Amino acid sequence: MASLIENLITVLEEESSLYEILTKESMAKTPVIVANDLKRLADANAREQKIVDDITAVSHKRDKALSEIATVLGKDAKTITVSEIIQAMEKQPEFQHPLIVLKDKMLKQVEELRNVNLHNQELLKEALEMTEYSINLVQSFNQAPETANYSGAGYSGATLGNSRSSFDTKQ
């Protein structure tokens, strides 16, 4: 049992380390978003994806370690949590304490990562809104003014001059 808990602690430390790297990478992405540097943003996304792939691989190792511990404890391998293992280790503080520390650390890391990602998401949303505004502004400059024509059938707007789109193709 001791080796299983030690293995779980090692896997959790590895996962925590990867979350720390991912958080730093996400924070480094914020000024890139603000600078509207699409090449650097694509590079940052590729680096983040590599880290997420690594986290996924480690999480499979964590699930395997949890499953092995669940079998020894006689618990359901699909539903066992680190918190349950912490409770089961109450008579073994040498295993319980590192698990508590890692659990708390990882919960804080995930919360910090979530906040950074929400901030980046808002920045990207604002950048998209500014792009849409710019496109609409350019299109409105190319549009001829409209006149108001009233007839028995009601209002019918007619454009003065030629209306030309900046996205017209050559024919």
Key attributes of the depicted protein:
single chain; mainly alpha; two-stranded antiparallel sheet; 4 helices
What does this structure look like?
The structure is a single chain. This protein is mainly α. It is 74% helix and 7% strand. The chain contains four helices and two strands. The protein has helices spanning 2-35, 38-73, 82-88, 93-141, and strands at residues 146-151, 154-159. The protein has a two-stranded antiparallel sheet with strand order 1-2. The longest helix has 49 residues, at 93-141. The protein is elongated and about 90 Å long. It starts with a helix and ends in a 12-residue tail after the last strand.
Question: How are the secondary structure elements laid out?
Answer:
Blueprint: H1 2-35, H2 38-73, H3 82-88, H4 93-141, E1 146-151, E2 154-159
Antiparallel strand pairs: 1-2
Spatial order of strands in the largest sheet:
1-2
Number of helices: 4
Write down the oligomeric state: single chain
Helix content: over 70%
Shape category:
elongated
Query: How much beta, percentage-wise?
Result: 5-15%
Helix/strand-derived category reads mainly alpha
Residue windows where pLDDT falls under 50 for at least 5 positions = none
- H/E topology pattern: HHHHEE
- Quote the distance from N terminus to C terminus: 76 Å
Tell me the number of strands. 2
Radius of gyration: 28 Å
Mean pLDDT: 87
The main pleated sheet reads as: 2 strands, antiparallel
